[in-house]
Amino acid sequence: MKAKTKNYNLLIFLFIFLFVAFNSTVSNSQPSDSISRINPECTGNGGTITPASANNACEFKPDTQKLTFYRLDLCTSRPTGPTTSTQIDRTFCSTFYKNDSGSETTVIKGTGTQIGTAADYTSLPYGTYTFGIVTMGSTFKYITSQTFDATMSDRSNSSNTCVTKVSTLGTIYGFENRIDTAAKSNVDCTSGATAAETTIGVNTLTTDIDNDCYHAITFQGTHVNIDTYLLESDLTLIDGVGATDTDQIKNGVAGCNGGTDNGISRVLGVMPLATPIKITPDTIGLQIKYNNTRGISKSMTNTANMIGYFDAAFFDFDLIAR
After folding, report:
1. CA–CA separation, 236 vs 101, rounded Å?
2. Is 176 inside a domain boundary?
3. Residues 261-312: pLDDT tens digits?
């Protein structure tokens, strides 16, 4: 992310592949801004997080992460992106996987897991594909228990281990105005607490210094840069995106409010494939390998060693022909 941005991000995924910019009426080849991660990796990720990371927002690997896939397309050239009135143009794309109801999938780092059933797949025409388009749900599920080399607090309870819990808000959205009460949090630092599944929703990709919400931006992925878009249920950009600032909606305007989904139901992306995928008579399928080493983050309050809430963090994956 840019240095100016604040980390109310829920980069999900994202994860993923993504693509093309636009303003309120015109679709461009890519979003106008790109970002890297704001938060660092937690010191001790994969084990005990050290005090150096205790008072700062940082990212770490969740125990369990789930996402919902709706569609996967491969394209022979860069597709034209969505606008507030049109969906992405798949003229030069072929659909490999499609399930309008969505298929929930457990993310395992470096491992391909089954998505949907055989009925959701269609054979791809022979050829060389240079872009992938992924359509995912805008909510993610996590279960995690994290140990710290310091006593941490959830505002009400303290111990060296904090776990995910179900929030009284239901789905937690990263742009939550700091989630200022323990009752709204999805963190439990009670000694001996058992981790429960929490749902975190994407309602903005990131915000700038004025808390204006990005609905399209390019993430710097593990191997390639990923153009990412937030879509409403009709798979177009939300009305108002680009009305005043390219790829954004102003803070407080419909589509840029905390504590709500902002009308977003899908995350769409297009990713240039680092290694083009060649579909031949010898190809038996495609495999997705995930990189979610830093798939969840902790957002801190202004009090030392106090966690405000767990948030989604950027993750991506690779497509590989087999």
Report:
1. 18
2. yes
3. 999 999 998 888 888 999 999 887 777 777 788 899 998 888 889 998 899 8
Per the structure, the count of domains in the chain is 1
In a domain, 133, yes or no: yes
Residue 88: Cβ-neighbour burial (10 angstroms; 0-12, 13-18, 19+): buried
Query: Between 194 and 50, whose confidence is greater?
Result: 194
Range of the structural domain that residue 294 is part of: 34-321
Tokens for 266? Answer: 């899908």
Is residue 150 domain-resident? yes
In angstroms, rounded to a whole number, what is the distance separating the alpha carbons of residues 3 and 8?
13
Q: What percent of the chain has pLDDT over 90?
A: 52
Q: What is the pLDDT of residue 145?
A: 96
Length of the chain: 322
Gap between the Cα atoms of 176 and 14, Å rounded: 19
DSSP letter at 181 equals: S
Phi-psi region of 36 (alpha: psi -120 to 50; beta: other; left: phi over 0): beta
Is there a domain that residue 5 lies in?
no
Rounded to two decimals, the pTM is: 0.84
For residues 219 and 314, give the distance between their C-alpha atoms in angstroms, rounded to a whole number: 8
